[in-house]
Amino acid sequence: MFDLIIRGGTLVTAAGQARATLAITAGVIKAVAPPGEAMSGTLDVDASDRLIFPGLVDAHVHIPGYLLSTRLEDFASATTAAALGGVTTLMLMPTDDPRTATGSYFSRKRDIGERHSHVDFAIQALIGPRTEREDIDEMADLGAISFELFLAYGGNPGFIIGHDDFELRRLMEAVRDVGRVAGVTPHSASLIARLTERQKLFEETRKHREVFEKEKARPPVQVFSSTRPTLSEGLGIARACVVAAETGTKIHLRALSSSHSVGIVNRFRDVVALSSEVMSHHLLFVAEQAHRLGPYGVIVPPIRTRDERDSLRRALRDGDIDMVVSDHSPVLREDKEPGWADIWKTPPGMPGLQTLLASMLALVEDGAISLEDIVRCCAERPAASFGLYPKKGALQVGSDADLIVVDPARPTLIEDATQRSKANYTTLKGRSINSRIESVYLRGKLVAHHDQIVAEPTGRFVRPSQ
Length: 466
Hints:
Distance between the termini: 33 Å
CATH class: Alpha Beta
CATH superfamily: Metal-dependent hydrolases
Shape: globular
Structural class: alpha/beta
Number of domains: 1
């Protein structure tokens, strides 16, 4: 007898769809059988007329208040949103205070997550010019799933590599030696700095009145976006790939937002072990929509043109981009609102954990991708790229029973009122999709059902197996 039988649903995998029955014991899938095969379990769930996806694996998530002592998003609120949205494994970016740059901070974050997380989680480590080799070795031993390099962003100047190619090579060699992935946030620090300086100076001086009035007519978000051009992104990607090819380091390239970037990545695929990601926002929105959102449309890298969005969709379908991430950046309303008066006062970022699957289903309905693409880009590939597959991201014998049961005949209207992140809004507000998440299981345990959390936090820290 099994612990749980989920009977007769349509399993969605990267390879296709098929009706089957899942048998689960001790949180692990023990059998995948034809729907009519006789099986018995302590609990038997009829999933007829339902779609069953593997739990999503989100490789790019920010939790800025993980210590549970601030007004900001914490483990409890972020992972509640994740569970309700079908994200059963998330990877924490390391830039949120206190930054995960030492073994002691790493351990503190892991311990708090294991007490308060509703889903499983991995931790990404932060390294930069101030990082000692001993810190990298220690965090690798503790289970860091990646080591993150920021060529332009990262908050603390001590962790921004900028144009220091000596440090870029040193750090990539260290990551290679511990057998991990170097996550790279690209861009050109000097280009962004000079463009931002020029833009702010232009706004302050107003010397050329006629030119200024024309410039002022541009939407504020467009003004901000002009300081983060696609050239900046491409320059950073090219540098990272050249050094990775020289050192033999496996890299993961963050937040591609243009066809130019995809083209550069493709040129290096034969000589570099690499993966790449795109944010769900860049697949859904175009620049004009971001402009209308005002400060809520400010994100890094910026939302690009319709042509760029469509090129990213094609690249995703063709496999030229490996995965989709939320880049969940839960900036609170009170911190976004000052941006209406001064766009430079708003922190960039959008929440996205709870709406990641909804975003992908919306893309399916738009004809941009398939259901199988969702599994490939939001479960299988992120898990495989970071050493978690097939324990995570799969519906096969031996995989953790992380499952999403979707009712394809019950529509969902995405609203601010249903968002459980402390950033209690969504840029998808008002979007309707034709299906609804019915249940979410974490290692065979029902954690979310009909838009409600139904279990105490049972999330575990996960580490790469390779």
